[in-house]
Automatic annotation (TrEMBL):
The keyword Signal applies. Pfam families: Lipase_GDSL_2 (PF13472). It comes from the Bacteria. Keywords: Hydrolase, Signal. This is Rhamnogalacturonan acetylesterase. Belongs to the 'GDSL' lipolytic enzyme family. The lineage of its organism: Bacteria, Pseudomonadati, Pseudomonadota, Alphaproteobacteria, Sphingomonadales. PANTHER family: PUTATIVE (AFU_ORTHOLOGUE AFUA_2G17250)-RELATED, RHAMNOGALACTURONAN ACETYLESTERASE.
Length: 284
């Protein structure tokens, strides 16, 4: 039998089949990765950025010691002092040589950083060191403060220690402009300052100009000191007794600062109050 198709039916028969509408795949469930959290460190470490007055010296330089070398004698067991102080450095050269960046790289959140400069910043005859107090020195300290805070550290300024420098029978501050900048920064940054300068000046006044020689490097060839076979007269750098006395001042100031690290400072510090040296920078 012959079947006739209408034109409309023919068109419908030859048309492309309608596209099947498929339901979209369900959105994949996102994988939630817990946020990485920094390790929780306790305040048990002190880093020091400074110059020769705080530096750690070997036995071959005895009796020369820095206050940073003796600071651990004022701290509870388990408290670590990482002393990166080095002779001849100012804020300018400490930063320029990459020493500040290296200190930051080895730091960890919760650390305290003691920052003490001024002696070498004042060396106007040494352009690689010189940092005028009101300008470059101030800017360098601000950089150190904010970069330390940015890493979760606690920066603490330490005014430069006094030299055995007397005028009319009174100990005088040779770096007053630099310590003044530090004190001014307390108000603008909220960073604490340890007044090593003021307290060491008081120590010199109480001791007297002549007797204060014991705190500094005054030796003769007869003393047969390992690092000074020909003797030395130095009113800037410290003997063992001087380093102990200055470390005790820093410890007392740090104890009173009411910082997290303050709880690690011993209230009684007999190892620093000794009247006779022990040799080679030992605590006891």
């Amino acid at each position: 039998m012959r079947v006739l198709f209408s034109a409309a039916a023919l068109v419908a028969a030859t048309a492309a089949p309608a596209q099947t509408q498929l339901a979209p795949d369900p959105a994949p469930t996102p994988t939630v990765t817990p946020a990485a959290t920094a390790p929780a460190y306790s305040a048990t470490r002190i880093l020091i950025a400074s110059d020769s007055t705080a530096m750690t010296y070997g036995a071959d330089r005895y009796p020369q010691l820095g206050w940073g070398q003796m600071l651990s004698c004022a701290l509870q067991p388990g408290t670590e002092v990482i002393n990166r102080a080095i002779g001849g450095r100012s804020t300018r050269s400490f930063i320029a040589e990459g020493r500040w960046d290296k200190l930051l790289a080895e730091s960890r959140p919760g650390d305290t950083v003691l920052i003490q400069f001024g002696h070498n910043d004042a060396s106007s005859n040494r352009p690689e060191r010189y940092a005028p107090a009101a300008t470059l020195y101030r800017d360098n300290l601000l950089r150190m403060i904010w970069e330390a805070k940015g890493r979760g550290l606690t920066p603490v300024l330490v005014t430069p220690p006094a030299r055995r420098s007397f005028q009319n029978g009174k100990a005088k501050a040779d770096f007053a402009a630099y310590s003044g900048v530090m004190r001014d920064l307390v108000a603008t940054t909220g960073v604490p300052v340890l007044d090593l300068e003021g307290r060491s000046l008081a120590l010199l006044d109480a001791t007297g100009e002549t007797a204060a020689r014991k705190y500094y490097l005054h030796l003769t060839a007869a003393d047969k000191a390992p690092g000074f076979p020909n003797g030395i007269d130095d009113d800037t750098h410290f003997s063992e007794l001087g380093a102990r006395a200055l470390a005790d001042i820093v410890a007392a100031e740090l104890k009173g600062a009411k910082l997290p690290i303050s709880d690690r400072v011993l209230a009684d510090r007999p190892d620093l109050a000794r009247k006779t040296p022990l040799g080679a920078g030992r605590c006891r």
